[in-house]
Amino acid sequence: MSLASKLKLLKLDYNVRRVRVIFLRDYPKLPTPSGLIDARRGDEVELPRWQARILKDQGYVDFREQQVDIDYVNRYHFKERKSSGASQLIGIPQDFYFKAGELVGKLNIVIRENPSHALLRDREITEKNIIDIAEARLSKILRLVYSESRDIVEKVTPEEFALFNYMLNAVEQWRSYIKSIARGDLSG
Fold this sequence. Notes:
Number of helices: 6
Mean pLDDT: 90
Distance between the termini: 23 Å
Number of strands: 5
CATH class of the largest domain: Mainly Alpha
Radius of gyration: 22 Å
Low-confidence stretches: none
Helix content: 55-70%
């Protein structure tokens, strides 16, 4: 399976994963994966993220999980830049990239509704910091692939782990190819 396909599956998994919400208004006969429910104001239930997002946009629910803000991205940007060692990964939340992307999406909506220089600057800094984090981590992951270290599972996101395995496989294939050339095996 290609890396792009794995990343799409991870995004799908994120969107179908259940999240806890609290109802702000009644919603009788709400269709859920487990059947119809009569949701009342104040009820807390778990719904697939995609459904919770729609209901939030319509003003029916609020998420119970921590919502990310600019400080969330800035905090991990600072930690990643200050981490010691060229191949030392800091632990980041499993859903970091998805949540950071949702934050930029929210900023885009707010900017469309009420544009301001401050909001545009916030979005620009947030985008830059997300990319800086990913680039710094990519550099460290590449070093770990080269060293064949496998002690990274708890410190990487699912997307980064898929990337690590993809690169590790490519490096192993390359090394195998070179060894066959070095043995004089030019037949295949």
